[in-house]
Fold this protein.
Amino acid sequence: MRIALAYITVVLLWATTPLAIKWSGEGPGFLFAVTSRMAIGAACILLTLAVLRRSLAGHRKAWLTYFAVAVQIYGSMIIIYWSAQFIPSGWISVIFGLAPLMTALLANLLLKEKNLSFSKVCAYGLGISGLYTMFGTAIHLGGNAALGIAGAVFATLLQSVGAIWIKRINAGLPALAQVAGGLGLALPAYLITWAIVDGQWPENLSTINIAAIAYLGVIATTIGFSLYYYLLTHLSATRVALISLMTPVMALMLGHLANHEPLTKQIMTGTSLILAALVMHELMGRVTTPKLKWARKNSKRATIFRES
């Protein structure tokens, strides 16, 4: 029940986060928006640890986990904020829908999971087709939109790499500790980046900017990150990545209704192709797995029969 509730909460947060990212950076700039979000999130996480009287582990696996989380929190998020300047917020969620495909492919390469079947190769082809359609749509939004899509794809890749890395380390740390350690490493990197590249306090912060940054810092970072790493501890990396299967349409509709973002046939076609790829990847995996087990079982029986 706890895992199911956490899963639903993360789905809702991921559906609303792209629009909040978009609103938080319009005016003060993406670097100030993401840095202030992480500073608020870090303060909330430290306060939570103090109230719960918990400390962070300091062994080797713990530090490796903190670094892997920092790769996601700093590397992936700063690129997403940069990309959000050039593309509609809903597109971020659609592109992040490729996370299960990337995670499964990386798991096959790095964790030696032998799950690369013909149906999954077809699913990857559908996902690439959907992404190609999205790139075609970007032409109508200007040249920078293509850069925004490319950035979002790279951010998704970093997110998947971090998830696989955390699962491979398998430190068994509590979710809150993972977020605290990762933020502890990521926040200085954010502050240094902001100081070097920008370093100026924005002259005007609208109510929407402040509300979006506060929501992302207190809710999306503190609660969202903690629940995400809680799920990553108890579920497979691919299963957690499937959250992005449920959020794209919700994020597209929210961006269209609340921020008047375009919702053309081409956008819906690209989204549909990516979602179809995810459905094929998930359902075909469930269908073929029992068959593979049956084949392996009967193969072993045949070997024993021949040897006897």
User: Anything to note?
Assistant: DSSP finds twelve helices and no strands in the chain. The two ends are 49 Å apart (CA to CA). The CA atoms of residues 152 and 170 lie 27 Å apart. Confidence is low (pLDDT under 50) at residues 287-308.
